[in-house]
Give the backbone structure.
Amino acid sequence: MLFANRKDAGRKLAAALADYCEKSPVIVALPRGGVIVAAEIASALDAPLDLLFVQKIGVPFQPELAMGAIVDGAEPTIVRNESVIRHAGIREKEFSAICASEQAEIERRRRCYLGDRGNIPLGARVVIVVDDGIATGSTVRAAIKAIRRQEPKELVLAVPVAPIETLEELDSDVDALICLETPPVFYAVGHFFNEFPQVSDAEVIAVLATLPQDGSPDPEPISQKE
């Protein structure tokens, strides 16, 4: 196994991201598994942690196969995998119905995890997007697309493990890409962790309670006139 668990992966990623400590980054996690990894990074870099809610749009008869993804926002971002949609014979009405269902789950998670807490504005900030691993890249691609709309100063993608071909597809979408391991044979993210349990809502809420919520960068010192 490459990683003991998500916390171990987060600590190793934090070491790889150490140079970003002085850039006042915002760490953006993809719930739920990405929150555990991102919390270690946020703690090490003394950075605020925020969440971006992304739901995979799975094929009805094979839910693990992504035919797209939807990202929370005032105008939800939807990324479609047209080849999967065509191959699976999914009609537009069916696709829209699944989108609506996943949007409802996003709303539930947002209320559960954040309550009345607002998201951190990402414009002109260094943003580090974190997940616990990437397989096809559909959810991460949707997240990146949504964050780009806010015009961050720099957009970094940081994950413990991913297939090299997926990283090559994502590389042009970000300003920097940090991935610790790219196994030549890739079945599923969980195969590379000794412990990879499902993350509960309660775990996410507990993690958020231990980390700073203030997303404002430290003000620059004002020089005194002589």
User: Anything to note?
Assistant: The chain has one domain: 6-209. The first strand starts at residue 26 and ends at 29. The longest helix spans residues 92-114.
